[in-house]
Amino acid sequence: MTRYVVGKVTDLASGQRRIVSIEGRSIGIFNVDGRFFALRNRCPHKGGALCEGPLCGTALPVDGFTYLYGREGRILRCAWHGWEFDIETGQALVDPHVRVQTYPVTVEGDELVIIVYRDC
Amino acid sequence: MVERWLPRDARFKGSLVVAPQDPVGAAQEIRRIGSHPDIVQVLVSSGAQRPYGDPFYHPLWEAAAEMNLPVAAHLGGQGGVNSNPTGCGAPTFFWETHALLCETGMGHVASIIAHGVFERFPAARFVLIECGIAWLPAILWRLDADYKALRKETPWLKRLPSEYAHDHIRLTTQPLEQPRLMEHLWEPLADIRAEDMLLFSSDYPHWDFDDPHLMRFPPAWKDKILDGNARELYRLPARSPHLEPKENQGTLSLQAKPGRGGSG
Question: How far is CA A49 from CA A82, A100, A111, in A?
Fold first, then answer.
């Protein structure tokens, strides 16, 4: 496990994102309403820059023939082919077997820290 | 048919023909006749004014599911009041048209899955008759790929299009496509587990009929395609040669082909 300081907390305001490079990995860090999330910036589908895609909501699973929009700001959608991921867990909405790597983000003093485990 | 043909032989089963352009009338007809023990499916043409998943048709699907009857679409009926045989316009020659009539089958498969007919009516089954089978793997691969990207367009779906197809859609084999090596037909079909989805049909006595004596299905699939899949779909009695009347046994042993080993 390695800690990486990626900047000051104040550098990443709510609603903003940054792409950083850690040990050759491109990682996206998001501030969503004061909560921080970090994900590998590589879509497991075809390798697109996932963390540069829209952070949005989606049509929630429904039983009837209708649309129910929800989870605004919690869905990361790849700009290449539209695959949707839960920003917190990295889970692909459409396929339980597909997940993008996520990393814990902590705030230490005024620093933003990403924790990377070996081989992740 | 109900009065004259179905009583003649227990192996005769009937299709309930409805006019899909009047879905409410079709639903009434399905409920009127559908409980007859020898009526085993609802029948429409594959030529249609709009694809069969459209909510316009849901009264028809609802009635068919209620009566536990598959809805079958038979090749034909394109043009006239219905849509063109192909999306790019009317073909010119008959053989050209005939080879391409399967295009409407593809449209129905996509529409029925996308509109969630099998979520809304879990008992619903769709049978495509005479629309070919070789295209099915390619279409299901495409549907799965596009659904994964655009899931949010149809949030009522809970499974992949190919999974709905495997459990709810059946295709009849005639006219079976003829590649130079038949294994090239079966290999992609194996990928979508089509051995559970295919039903042998002869189309006898049409000019392009398939002779059951000349068919070369993969040995491991033969029993399902020629017999088991149809029995399951149409709820026919299980094949039990030892329970057959003695005088039929000789005939049965020669009849491993067209799924007709019924109780005679």
Answer: 12, 12, 25
